Amino acid sequence: MNATPAKPQLPALDLRGVNMVSRLDPATLVAEEVNWTVQAGEFWVVGAPQHSGKTDFLMTLGGLSPPSGGEYYFLGEAMPIFEESRLLHRLRLGFVFDGGQSLGQLTVAESIALPLRYHGGWSGDEIESRVSELLEMTELVPWANSTPANVGRSWQQRAGLARALALRPEVLLLDSPLTGLDVRHSTWWLAFLAQLSRGDSRVGGKPVTLVVTADDLRPWRNCAWRVACLANRRLLVLGNWHAVENSIERAVQELLVG
Amino acid sequence: MQKAGATAIPAPPPRVRDRWGLPRFYSDLVGRRVFAFLLALHGVGAFALITVGVLLRNFRVAQPVMRPLIAREIHRAGVQLLPMFFFAAAALGFLVIGQTVAWLSRVEAANNLLGNIMVIVVVREFGPLLTALLVLARVGTANVVELGTARALGEVEALEALGIDPVHYLVVPRVVGMAVGVFALTVYLILGTLVSGYLWAFIQAVPLLPGDYFRQLAGALSYLDFALLALKTCAFGFIIAIVTCYHGLGQPLQLNEISRATVRAVGQSTVACILLDALFISLYLAVT
Fold first, then answer.
1. A53-74 pLDDT per residue, tens
2. 3 state DSSP class of A16
3. Alpha-carbon gap, residue A143 to A177, rounded angstroms
4. Count of CB pairs separated by less than 8 Å, A with B
5. Are A97 and B160 an interchain contact pair (Cβ–Cβ within 8 Å)?
6. B161: chain A residues, CB-CB within 8 Å
7. Which of residues 67-106 of A touch B (CB under 8 A)?
8. Each residue of B16-43: pLDDT tens digit?
9. Which end of chain B is more exposed for a tag (fewer CB within 10 A), N or C?
10. Which value does ipTM take for this structure?
11. At what angle do helices B26-57 and B223-249 cross, to 10 degrees?
């Protein structure tokens, strides 16, 4: 019997000469000529100083704003995806905003259930069970019935994470998840993301591909295993931490000092 | 650069038009206003077409989520406003009947005109327009503030990230809710005004039996009145929802810009409703 040749795995994210612009001001260039490949299962941290366009960079990766040039493929499909016919493919990507970006009218539990209820295919019991599981995973049970106005920023960020995980994404983009968190919350996030990167049965079992932005690389040293740096509208793909420490780029050194 | 020791030349006093912010040329001002109007028309028109497209295309999408949202909007733009509309109905009935009786008491057989006057003033004109303006004031302004805040705080991006069309989730329920709400409230306002009108006439000792009054009303009404009333009120609701949602959602907004967006939305909605009303009057006069 002939062994079937292993199907080459598609890169999770594949950017070729991509130019990115600000969502609020499309005339402002955030990054140019980005050539970058993120393989499935990798855990990347993209360091960048404050106000350097991290959110716009991540929004382009998330397909929320189109690149102004170049080619960008997400799991083999050209991005951004706006067509209904390719929506299922698009939902393989999750996005966690800086601050959680809560939906003002909904409670935490309703907000987590929203994508499940909207996209269908789940019974009422399944939705309830999935929401309970996510609330427990993110320790949000006490705030399940609270609206965002009554929940602290740190917990809103977790609610954003739980909502993004509801549809079991294969790739998760996180915008500065540690910003403004105390040590207890930061430690929880780092441990949780490390667990997701290894594979968690509650999120499909397979390792989730993670791309995180940060303005301080130090907390990620024992967590993320690939590093890039966005500075002066260029993405420096550094690779592992050894390369980061040996980098002579001033921007990289600043991100290591914090 | 000014040299040291040189005498500084005092700046000339600002001219009157600079001090008062008056334009250099009034033709510039008119031109700017016309362009701004055309741009607004273009933006609102495009937003309306997108919304109608999403409404038709996604009519059956995510019904477990959309049905409660639409019910909430109907409650907000309809049921919740009922007490205010009952008050408005009582006041309008008094206003129309009080003035009419005061003036027509000099004319012989003027009582025979009360029903006709109520139909012309209340059913065809005041009822729908007053309802639209009250709904605009109570719900339309809230729409701009809510959606503007959602936009400024990034909720729209959060929905997009979840694969949820913001127009479907945020605008469609408001459009449907407001169209239904304005129609239903107009019907209640008209019924309330007709009843209160008779009560005021009765209080003023006008010799008119209820049967005669309602016979006059029925005689003055035609099928066209019902059809145009339904069309007009739904169109008012649609226009108010579209204009207010456009100003809240249709363009990137900072928190400090929301108040200005609200003022613009109210102004444009009012003008649009009055123009539409004029169009319906012309249509009615052409048909009859």
1. 889 999 999 988 888 888 999 9
2. strand
3. 19
4. 59
5. no
6. 62, 64, 94-95, 97, 164
7. 84, 87, 90-91, 94-95, 97, 99, 101-104
8. 555 566 666 777 788 888 888 888 889 9
9. N
10. 0.88
11. 110
